[in-house]
Amino acid sequence: MIIYSKSQYMGDGAIGRLDTPIKMLIEHESDLMKKKGGICDWLFNKEKSNHFAETVIVQKGFNCFDYVPEGGAAVNDCVAETFTMSIEHLQFMKEFTITAEMMEDANFGIAAEAKRRIQNFVRSYYQTINKACASAISCANSAFINFAGARISTTSPDGMPLFHRNHYWGYEEASGNQSNYFYGDFARANGSYSIEKAENSLYSLAAALRNMKDENGDPTGYVADTIILPGNQPKLEKMIKQICGSENAVGTANNDVNIHYGNWNIIVIPTWNADCDEMIIMSSEANKALGGNLFFERVPLTVSSWIDHHTGNYNWTGRCRFSLGFGSYKHILKVTADEEALETATALAD
How far apart are CA 332 and CA 222, in angstroms? Predict the structure, then answer.
C-alpha cells in the first residue's frame, strides 16, 4: 500500500495534469515489484505495527501432560518468560525532482527521463527493504550492521548475535548453551570443491538444526528446507544446486539415492559478498512458528509532492518507517570457512 499526501498545488493546471499520471506510474511500478518479490518476502515474517517499537518475548513452553490417577487434580504448569527484546522502527526517506523545463517540454505528459526517475524511486524503496533484510541475515554473526546510515541490531533475544556458538537455552534449573554457527571447510577437500564433502556437511548441519533444544531442553525437531548462498560464489552455488537437483548420487555412475533431492529451496542473495565459502540453512516452518526473521512495517511508503518556488521544480518525497530483527536463533544456522570465525563458531565435525 502507498499513501499519498494531498498536494497543496492541485489548483495549478500544469501540476494537476501531471499529478495523476505520476501516481498511476508509481502504483504500477509498485505492483510489479510486489509480484517479483524479494529477500524480505522469501525469508522474513512480515507484519504491520502500530507502536513505537515491537517487543519480542521468548517463553518456556509447557512440559508434557502428567499422569493423574482417577479423581486426581491436574498439575498446574506455567509459561514463563525467558528473554525479552525490543525492535525499534527506523525512518528512511528519498526524494526525486521533475524540473520545470521537463514538465513544459513534455506538454503536460510525463517525459521519458521523468518516467525513469519515478520507476527508480519506487524500486529504491523496495531495494531498501530487501537490501536491509539481506544485509542483516548475511552479516548476523556480528551484533549489528550499519545500513544506509542506520544501526540495526542483529542479536537474538538472548543478547548474542544471531549466529553464535554460545546461545542460551532453558529456564532456571534446566539450561545450557548450544551453537548455530559453525566453522570448517564444509564444501572442500584438499583445497578443491568436493560434492561428497558438501553432501555430508549439509546432512550434518540439517541434523544440528533439527536437534536444536527448546527452552525445556527437548529437540525442536524442525526440518531444514532452505539454503541461502552468497551471490559472489558461483562455483559453490553450482555445486549446491547440483546436489539438491540431482535425483541420484551426483557425479557417479551408480544409482544411489540422493537424500537431498527435492528437500531444499535455494535462495541466492546477490548483495551478499562473502570472502570465503559460506552458507546459511533455515527451516521455514521454524521461522514462522518461532518468529525467527521479523520485519515490521510501521509506516508504508508515504508520498508527498511540492513545488520549489525558487526553481519551479516539482519535487516528490517518499517516507517510510520499518524495523527488522530476529525473535529466535533456533530456526537457522550458518557455516563458514573463515578462520577468524573460530572465536565465535563451533568447529564443524568431519
Answer: 10
Q: Are 145 and 139 in contact (CB under 8 A)?
A: yes
Of 323, 335, 327, 324, nearest in space to 288 by CA: 327
Give the range of the structural domain holding residue 40, as residue numbers without chain letter. Answer: 9-59+83-347
- Count of the separate structural domains present in the chain: 1
Q: What is the pLDDT of residues 141-153, one digit of tens each?
A: 999 999 999 999 9
* Measured distance CA(269)–CA(43) in Å, rounded: 11
**Positive or negative: CA dihedral 41, 277, 343, 224:** positive
In a domain, 2, yes or no: no
CA 260 – CA 200 distance, rounded (Å): 10
pTM for the model stands at: 0.88
Q: Which residues contact 88 (CB under 8 A, 6 or more apart)?
A: 52, 53, 323
- CATH code for the domain of 198: 3.90.1690
| 136 part of a folded domain | yes
Q: Could you tell me the three cell numbers for 249?
A: 548420487
